[in-house]
């Protein structure tokens, strides 16, 4: 399996997760659109540009504005991964340190630094949360429960030090450890707040399906205008993509159908029938 095919499969999984299909027929009908967007990242970006422009135009017609929307780029996604890695490192550097001997990074020496790392981790999470909530960061692939995991990890670690490793603390100079543990608890509380606020959004479906397609739209009555604008985009981009590399497009379409079958969204017979339909493709935006 090549790195290119891995990236395509990741994009397929992301687009399907964001779609939030309500029926097998809906998933099959949208499979070719998913194939195009997954096979061509530039087309996916162009569709988002067209969607955002349609939303702005609809809002402007009503005298409203969506305001400034932060867009997620590579650096935001790298920072998101870095935040989670830092969150694990904060605990790991202490949890894995020897409890005796002359190690350079013991509990006494490292608790304060580790606490700062935990705070840095949650600070990045807070900074990126608006992008996660809007679906710009990882679509619907980053649920709020990741914050709950880190909250339990950090607060649980601080409690375990007090319960099981307090004998390693210098009783004449305990403050570096105490401050470090307080930082862990504060980071954990902040992560709990993020989880509590974010879980309601996740349950509402605001980052998938219709809500994702229309994000930023002030009045839902303008939804048909947005979908019509996207239909016009598909009417141009779909045939262009098919004429430029039909073989790749249909190969990706088969991968989309296979993924839908593996996840139980469609059954094998629907997969086979859909894979055989190559002559007619209706290029339109799905209306969730």
Can you give keywords for this protein?
288 residues, single chain, 11 helices, mainly alpha
Provide structural commentary.
With 288 residues, this protein is mostly helical. 72% of the residues lie in helices and 0% in strands. The chain is built from 11 helices and no strands. The longest helix is centred in the middle third of the chain and has 30 residues. It is elongated and about 80 Å long. The two termini are 33 Å apart. The mean pLDDT is 85.
Helix-strand makeup class: mainly alpha
Strand content: under 5%
Arithmetic mean of pLDDT: 85
Distance between the termini: 33 Å
Instruction: Give the count of helical stretches.
Output: 11
CA radius of gyration = 24 Å
Global morphology = elongated
Percentage of residues in helical conformation: over 70%
| Major sheet size, sense and barrel closure | none
Number of strands: 0
N-to-C series of helices and strands? HHHHHHHHHHH
Report low-confidence residues grouped into runs of 5 or more.
Answer: none
